[in-house]
UniProtKB/TrEMBL annotation:
InterPro entries: TPR-like_helical_dom_sf, TPR_rpt. This is Tetratricopeptide repeat protein. SMART domains: TPR. Transmembrane segments: none annotated.
Length: 227
């Protein structure tokens, strides 16, 4: 009996160390290696939710959209009130739609939209979902549901959650429609408020790549590097 207990404890310890090793590989962005270990761990722990999510995340990083969709579908079906699982499912579906022909993509758009809308409804403060909806409604042709008005609705919701994200979303919309003066002001407002690598990079890229104004870009970089 003691021997069996010992073997059981050893197996648990081995499983835990295997999961932790997989997590470290994931953090190191070694997604293929991490995925193999997570899949092995899942065989002996088939109901381990975090492992299923990690496998989906690894698949997404490796652009294996079918695998990512499968894992996230399992999660959102099991936890239908989890905004994050609906968001990840919609994201994987959206990326799959971008990788297939237009006719196939058209058949997927409604599922993508509904996944994001469900996530947004479940969590009024889910930032990533609202960004996804901004991107979606700008990229979709008007004939299948795209519109600036819809995108702006979720940019406004972002503004209520996070001023920085709100300004960045407004800037993205204005940049998309080539209203560059307004976009610049939005990005400046975001950077003055956030003063982060994210806000700096967005404004720097806007100056350097969109406006082709290297002088403004370099001046911004000098100011940011001093802080």
């Amino acid at each position: 009996m003691k021997y069996l207990l010992f073997l059981f404890l050893v197996q648990i310890a081995f499983s835990q160390s295997s999961f932790e090793k997989a997590e470290k590989l994931f953090e190191q962005k070694k997604y293929e290696e991490a995925k193999v270990l997570f899949e092995t761990y899942l065989k002996s722990n088939p109901n381990h939710i975090k492992t299923i999510e990690y496998i989906g995340d690894c698949a997404g990083q490796l652009k294996d959209w079918d695998q990512a969709i499968k894992q996230y579908k399992t999660l959102k079906d099991k936890f239908p009130k989890s905004a994050n699982y609906w968001y990840k499912y919609g994201g994987a579906m959206g990326m799959k739609a971008k990788s297939v022909n237009k006719f196939k993509a058209l058949s997927m758009i409604n599922d993508v939209e509904q996944a994001f809308l469900t996530a947004a409804k479940l969590d009024a403060k889910h930032v990533e979902t609202r960004w996804a909806l901004v991107f979606l409604y700008l990229e979709l042709p008007a004939i299948i549901g795209g519109s600036e008005k819809k995108a702006q609705k979720y940019a406004d919701e972002l503004m209520n959650i996070s001023k920085v994200d709100g300004y960045l979303a407004d800037g993205y919309i204005n940049e998309y429609f080539k209203r560059y003066n307004k976009a610049e002001k939005n990005y400046i407002d975001a950077h003055e408020l956030g003063n982060s690598k994210t806000t700096f990079k967005k404004l720097y890229d806007f100056y350097y790549n969109k406006l082709k104004n290297k002088a403004k870009a370099e001046k911004l970089k000098e100011q940011f590097d001093k802080k």
